[in-house]
Amino acid sequence: MPDYHAPIEDMRFVLNELAGLQDIAQMPGFEEATPDVVDAILDEAGKLAGEVLAPLNHIGDRQGCVLENGVVRTPEGFKDAYRQYVQSGWNALPFEPEFGGQGLPWVVAQAIQEMWNSANMSFALCPLLNVGAVELLQVHGSPDQQATYLPKMVSGEWTGTMNLTEPQAGSDVGAAKTRAVKDGEAYRITGQKIYITYGEHDFTDNIVHMVLARTPDAPAGTKGISLFIVPKYLPKEDGSAGERNDLRCVSIEHKLGINASPTCTMAYGDNGGAVGFLVGEENRGIEYMFTMMNNARLSVGVQGVAIAERAYQQALAYARERVQGRPVDGSSKQAVPIIRHPDVRRTLMTMRARTEAARALAYVTAGALDHARRHPDEAVRRDHQINRLELLTPVVKAWCTDLGCEVASQGMQVHGGMGFIEETGAAQHYRDARITPIYEGTNGIQAMDLIGRKVLRRKAEPVRDLTADMKQTVERLRGANGEDLPALGAGLKEAVETVEKATDWLMEAEARDPAEPGAGAAPYLDMLGGVTAGWLMARGAEAAARRLAENGVGDQRFLRAKIVTARYYADNLLPHALASANSAMKGSKGVLALDEDAF
Amino acid sequence: MPDYHAPIEDMRFVLNELAGLQDIAQMPGFEEATPDVVDAILDEAGKLAGEVLAPLNHIGDRQGCVLENGVVRTPEGFKDAYRQYVQSGWNALPFEPEFGGQGLPWVVAQAIQEMWNSANMSFALCPLLNVGAVELLQVHGSPDQQATYLPKMVSGEWTGTMNLTEPQAGSDVGAAKTRAVKDGEAYRITGQKIYITYGEHDFTDNIVHMVLARTPDAPAGTKGISLFIVPKYLPKEDGSAGERNDLRCVSIEHKLGINASPTCTMAYGDNGGAVGFLVGEENRGIEYMFTMMNNARLSVGVQGVAIAERAYQQALAYARERVQGRPVDGSSKQAVPIIRHPDVRRTLMTMRARTEAARALAYVTAGALDHARRHPDEAVRRDHQINRLELLTPVVKAWCTDLGCEVASQGMQVHGGMGFIEETGAAQHYRDARITPIYEGTNGIQAMDLIGRKVLRRKAEPVRDLTADMKQTVERLRGANGEDLPALGAGLKEAVETVEKATDWLMEAEARDPAEPGAGAAPYLDMLGGVTAGWLMARGAEAAARRLAENGVGDQRFLRAKIVTARYYADNLLPHALASANSAMKGSKGVLALDEDAF
Q1: Model ipTM?
Q2: Which pTM value belongs to this model?
Q3: CA B572, CA A512: separation in Å to the nearest integer?
Q4: CB A310 within 8 A of CB A4
Q5: Closest chain B residue to the Cα of A443, Cα to Cα
Q6: In contact, A129 and A264? CB cutoff 8 Å
Q7: Does B429 lie at the interface with A, CB-CB under 8 angstroms?
Q8: pLDDT tens digits, residue range B434-454?
Q9: Closest Cα partner for A569 from A361, A363, A327, A408?
Q10: How many CA atoms lie within 13 A of B374 on its CB side?
Q11: Averaged over A79-83, what is the pLDDT?
């Protein structure tokens, strides 16, 4: 299998030039995140990712997990890798220091999550789900619950899971039927949950399930869902894992990808009821879930970036090494590496530009999360919360994951016939990536969230705030020297105007017919993702040009490549974002024009 | 597994209204292909596909093939299905009557190939490759060779394979090293071939390999390749399979998809040399290969249509059945089937419009093949050969297969979490489809073929001939009554102008820099495919409107749906074809702007 090398120079560029890491490092609680510390952390994480996790990726895919007598055996090497990961303190990175966390900014944590996911997405899913559980308890757990669970879940000694889905309750979480009946201080939980990532595994002594369930007299729908802690082993007084709880993994799924991560069907209460502890108040479970949703959705978006990066690295290595065909320009009588063929080069440039664009979009949104949580000024916090974090989270989740699938597919294509052979490894990325547009809210759900809660309900103010920022960039670029920056400015100007037109259309469509905005939601999201990422690429080019002009600040070749790639994005990929806007505006009426029974 | 129902009404509509079946049926040799006969054939093929082949699709994927001691065992039921397929005479359908074929038009054969491939792509690959071998022998085989091999390969008693690829000779077939040394009347063949579809199997008593090899003093490159018949068993005087030849399958690949079709590494001559019989003359093997290339590439394009159709049917069935979430327009307090949600509806409409568009493009090109071969007027034959068949074959191959992958991916998405579970079957289509942009010339190779041989070398005359036809449609549509046809005309007008602009750009780019057209080849192809298919959709709408006006000719609902779907395509999908044109024209310079070592 080809190696994975964490793209640290790219990451640092985005963190510093686009995502505002310097500003974030000034905020209360982030004083530790100096440039030196962040550099050292990125380097060390890159080593673990490249040397320990990446070599297990293909083995994990081949071996998958095995369920025997309720026990899940993860693939060879995974348990030991998890031990190393925990011992080096990686699990604690982004969490609150009061529970043993290192309190680093989320934007740094997301960069490191990208590494874990590039190296080994199946492995990375275990910590990713644990983050959600920790976030829930950090905010909504009682002091006792926090003291009992958080130190172990922060360190990684125990892992947390999220139990939402049931066969009849997928996108509609409110349709959950799992029952919770009060029994003294605790509750008895009975029911079945499906698609539980790392619901059972052999990494740790205990697993802490966060379970959505319904008390007997709860209101129907989402307003009758409560949240419970249901540990696999009930903690003893001394904090260690004690008596086995009444829950078990009854099956694991045979999936298209992420084979090394066990996707479990969990049965609760087959023998009288699993013991569960209510988090917060009854019937507020969905509300609590939303507190961790932004972060979890961001993380899944980062998985899209991660798979794109891995697929790009592998395709690039192959394109340099595979010798086939003579060059069209007659520059050689001999066959050359396929990277010299213009069509292959286009594929690689597209993969590269897409990956960089998605990374910029994801990290900038993660930076908004840090601003929204930690900026000393409440108005700034609110601005970042509403106009950036909440607006862009569904965009990051959907746009970056669709992109991850496309880039993984392009990576296969660069390999030709070899790409279709499983031993090559390119096909694994294609299979693994495909879950990301589905889980943590399908990309269709993201699009509905974007247009409904984030645009229409707020009368489009967050989008207008975003386009106002873009227009400032346009002005600067149009007045810049040289050919590239003004060209980027001209392309961006058209793009911003298109976002404004499409947003006006959205408001008018809603007034006309409540179903019409939903019919245009997906292309609207695609447009907003494509334009916002294009804006960030242009800002990256601007920063690179500035540093080049300052002569000697950074690697010249690296900085020039940033400008070339931004220009490639603007000329080759941005047109499709604008086509999506056209599709939303011209085509949404046609979505519902065919009667249901005429299909 | 959900059923497959051959979309016979759709197929008939395209055959009759767009692909010119009535005209083709008038040509010499096709007198049998009356509407009644074609209808009966489509019905019967639909039954075999739906009742016999489709139920084996998932079993075949799960079981795969097994190689033991050089013998390949196909999955349960496949051998028997092949027997039924041969006994009913399906294999002989498109071949020349003088060798036992039924001599039906290719356009009908491609419709039926669509059925086999929708039902079971792994199965269908065996006959598909055999077609190539038969076509080669029909045109280039000696009378003796024809008499020995063709009757059995036409009936399906024996199967044929294509042996082109070697590890160092993929897209560059001319780099083949397999040796052929003259030995009396025959040759001794030594070498290894990879990716040989159905290179070994248990369907038949004998397998006839068509092998590219190089004689000792042959010129380097493509001009030194000869073509040989290398049968697994050497035919005896009485025509039956005799002595075992010196060739064997040494391994089968572990692939992403099409698991039921054995992809073999074939070793020739491990014990002194396999006996091979030269086809035609030495060093003309590549030239001969081209005689069957158009048809084989068309067939792979049809596989894209086929997978799209199957994925659409499965997603539609699921969307009708899966109940989840209340409707946005408040029309129900209860959860409804997800087909009622606008975003899901958009996905289904996109799948539907894409599938119909791809079918139209593929069948029309197959119709051009029949015209090019059988039309009594030589000028008409030449016109169809050059301006339609040769121009559009790479477009069908690449555009329809990319589309097949995208539609299969959308089909998974409609299933949500279920889509990622292998038992559902949606993921199999996604995996199976992914080979089609790779084999029979990667889609990058198709794009280079299009711009190089089909556009630039012919000074763009075939494209101008095509756009001239499109403009006639534009004129008719713009003068039509109602809202839809004129709107289609306006959309098509812009699209045709874009094709003309992009073609001018291509000519200028070549004059400027020989590498630049190649850098824009892929988006140019995407544009030409998208616009040509959009033109055919608009012509379909025109035909439907005419039949609706004639009152009572055909199913009203079906005909109205054709207009709605054409409009959907024009408003939602055509913008992306135009964006691809922009990407080619604006962005191709940027493809090579980054130095190779700056990647």
Answers
A1: 0.97
A2: 0.98
A3: 20
A4: yes
A5: B413
A6: no
A7: no
A8: 999 999 999 999 999 999 999
A9: A361
A10: 22
A11: 98
Cα separation of A197 and A521, whole Å? 29
Three-state DSSP at B440 gives coil
Q: How far apart are CA B577 and CA B384, in angstroms?
A: 24
Q: What residue of B is the nearest CA neighbor of A253? A: B421
User: Collapsing DSSP states into helix, strand and coil, what is residue A242?
Assistant: strand
Q: 3-state class of B254 per DSSP?
A: coil
Tokens of A397: 């989740």
| Residues B409 and A442: beta-carbon distance below 8 Å | no
Q: Is B518 on the interface with A (CB under 8 A)?
A: yes
- Predicted confidence at residue B32, as pLDDT, reads 84
Residue the block writes with tokens 């494209």: B463
* Closest C-alpha to A281, from A214, A226, A229, A230: A226
- A44: contact with B, CB 8 A cutoff: no
The pair of three-digit structure tokens given for residue A339, joined into one six-digit string: 């990277």
Per-residue pLDDT tens digits for B328-375: 888 889 999 999 999 999 999 999 999 999 999 999 999 999 999 999
Judged by CB atoms within 8 Å, which residues 108-167 of A form the interface with B?
165
The answer to whether A598 contacts B172, with C-beta atoms less than 8 Å apart, is: no
The neighbour count for residue B167, using CB atoms within 10 Å, is 14
* Arithmetic mean of pLDDT, A8-24: 97
Helix (H, G, I), strand (E, B) or coil at B264: strand
The position carrying tokens 């890159």 is A46
Cβ contacts of B434 on chain A, cutoff 8 Å: 409, 412, 420, 427, 430
Inter-chain residue contact A422 with B447, CB threshold 8 Å: no
How far, in Å, CA of A446 to CA of B457, rounded? 47
Residue with tokens 């998208």: B530
Residues 6+ away with beta carbon under 8 Å from A113? A124, A127, A128, A299, A302, A303, A306
Which amino acid is located at A26 in the chain? Q
User: Which SS3 state, helix, strand or coil, does residue A198 take?
Assistant: coil
Copy the structure tokens of residue A563. 């400008």
In this structure, the number of other CB atoms found within 10 A of the CB of residue B102 comes to 20
Q: B171 vs A324: CB contact, 8 Å cut-off?
A: yes
3-state helix, strand, coil in chain A (%, to 5): 60, 10, 25
pLDDT confidence band for B166 (50 / 70 / 90)? very high
Coil, strand or helix: which one is A337? strand
Type of residue numbered B109: A
Name the amino acid, one letter, at B360.
Answer: A
Check: CB of residue B82 under 8 Å from CB of residue B53.
Answer: no
B contact residues 490-509, partner A, Cβ 8 Å cutoff: none
- In the structure encoding, which two tokens stand for residue B19, read together? 């692909």
**What are B303's two structure tokens?**
């596989």
Long-range contacts of B6-9 (CB under 8 A, 24+ apart): B6/B42, B6/B45, B6/B46, B6/B49, B6/B50, B6/B115, B6/B118, B7/B309, B8/B42, B8/B43, B8/B46, B9/B555, B9/B558
Question: Which residues numbered 178-217 in B keep a CB inside 8 Å of some CB on A?
Answer: 194-195
Residue A306 clears pLDDT 90, i.e. is over it: yes
B350, B2 Cβ separation under 8 angstroms? no
Tell me which long-range contacts A545-554 makes (C-beta under 8 A, separation of at least 24): A545/A480, A545/A482, A545/A484, A545/A485
Contact B476, B541 (CB under 8 A): no
Q: Is B440 a catalytic residue?
A: yes
Does residue A451 register a pLDDT over 90? yes
For residues A481-488, give the mean pLDDT: 96
Q: pLDDT digits over A230-274, tens only? A: 999 999 999 999 999 999 999 999 999 999 999 999 999 999 999
Task: Say what the pLDDT of residue B391 is.
Answer: 98
Q: Inform me whether the pLDDT recorded for B1 exceeds 60.
A: no
Other CB atoms within 10 Å distance of the CB of residue A80: 12
Q: Are the Cβ atoms of B568 and A560 closer than 8 angstroms? A: no
Rg (CA), chain A: 24
